[in-house]
Every structure is written in C-alpha cells, then in structure tokens.
Amino acid sequence: MNEKELKRQMLEGKNKILLFRRLEDAHEEDAARLVFQREHTFEYERDLDRIVTKDGVVVKVGELEANVDIDAIQSKKDPTYEMLQEAMIKGEKLELWEVNIDEDLKEDDKYPAVYCQGYLENWSPASSAEDEAEINSNFVVELEPQFGMATLTDEVESAVQYAFRDVTKLEEDEGNDGP
What we know:
179 residues, Pnp Oxidase, Chain A, seven-stranded antiparallel beta sheet, 3 helices, 7 strands
C-alpha cells in the first residue's frame, strides 16, 4: 500500500500493544507483552505559563511530561504481570515500548514504536464480583520518549496473532501455541 493510500486508512487501537522489561534485565531478556491488554493512553503534557506584558501575552514553555495509563484483564498466570507488580513494589526502573503491529506499516520486519524508560506510579488490581479481575496502572516516563522501529520476537508476534494452519495434523516440531 502506498503512502497516499495509508493516509486514508484508519489506525486501529487494537494494533498498538505495550511491551515491558526491567531496565536491569536488558542484556538477559527480551521485552514481554502484558496479556489481555484492553486499553492504554500515551499522554504528553507540557505546562504553558502565560505572562501578561504591556505588549501582549508571552508564553513560557515548560518541560515535556509523559505517562502511559494502562488497563488490562488479569491472567491466571502471566510472568509479565508478576514482573510489573514486583517492579512497582521495589521501585525498579522499567522500559516500555508501544509497538504498532499494523502489517501495512511494517518495514524490513520492524514495526513503528515509541520507546521510553520510567517507573510505575501506581498498581491497582481490581476484583469485581460480576466482571473479570482487572489491572490499572500508570507508567511515568522519565526524560523524552524516543520514536523508531522495533523488532518483535517470534513469541510476541505469535501471541499477538496466530498464523494460518492447514487442516492436516501438526508435525512434532510444530508448536501448539495460541494467543
């Protein structure tokens, strides 16, 4: 699809996923996806001070602040959930990627992404009698988010979307993984 056609296509929110990793684990582990993500909001904010002068209003621009609000359904067993909860409790620095997995935007096996480092400001598991157990959290970005292209691991890519399978039985070396 060419660039002109892409401009007329809507970007679907379900194609933006969050990946996480403890900063201290950057040399040992790949980033991992929190399962059952429902919604997240990447928010950029900057204070603007309006100074009234005799010549008119002058605006003084403050520093950029960014955070990511996260909403997900809890899984019965998700190592990423456990890692994030522990990082919150211990005050550990995390890495976060917002990756846009829209195939139309993929370039050389990489996807558009926003990368940042920061801390979880809160961790709120909620358990309703009538609904699924949820988790709400706020990730506070340190410094400025960086924009680039990210590679998804086979594990994350297969969890995001399963591949087409034929109707014949699987061979021993073929995985039986699903989302």
